Amino acid sequence: MSKVFGILTIAILVLSGYIAFKNKAAYDQEITKVAEQKASLAKKQAMLVESTAKVAGLGNERTEAEAEGENLVEVEATLGKENEALKAQAETKTAKLAADKAKLDEIREKTSKLGNIKELASKLAETNQELEALSQEITGAEAALADHTGRSMRATDSVEFSRKALEDYGTGQSLVTLNTRIRTIYPDWGFVTLTGGNNAGVVGNSTLDIVRGGQTIAKLLVTAVERNTSAASVIPGTLAPDTTIRVGDKVVRGEKASSQPAATTPNGPAS
Description:
Blueprint: H1 2-111, H2 117-171, E1 180-186, E2 191-194, E3 207-212, E4 215-225, E5 230-234, E6 250-253
Antiparallel strand pairs: 1-2, 1-6, 2-5, 3-4, 3-6, 4-5
Helix pairs in contact: 1-2
């Protein structure tokens, strides 16, 4: 009987040791998982601080853009005045040319019956030279007017572009001219990076569309913007079923949502 109790005691001790070993292994695994989550949280917090700094920098860019827009408006006004002056000059020269032609016709009529052909020919040649000089002046004035008109139109287009860009910045939307692509994908962290940044018209906290084959397959929320690159999270519920985001997918400006939920993974909804 004592042998049986001894064997049972040994079996119980072995079983207890095995259970303790399994519990320690599970505990160590949980400790490792918590450490990884803390590291991921710290990295995302650092990215949030950097994004906040970038958004603050947009205020300075907006001020500069407004100053540039005001300068372009002044340039447009100046060019408009120059255009009006050139038009007035062209009209004056055209009227003078018509008067000279009328005068020439009058001279020809008066001298048609005169006998001094050489003197008449000399006067006609002199008048023709004056007419040619006037014609060249008018041609030059018309060319200058066309040049100033072109400059005025370009200035107007530039002012309109700057005004639209300021509106987009003010409403927190990326520029309508935005056309960039997916550079890298981080499925574990739920975000992607783009090949364009401030230089392409990406604005922080704006909504973007991933487009493939003319269809929107997912929506992004911009979280960080630099000069030549930016980062964005995939908005939950916007990724098309059975669709995976790919490197090189086209990204354009999307409609700004009233509120943005937390990010999901680029390859599907979070589990």
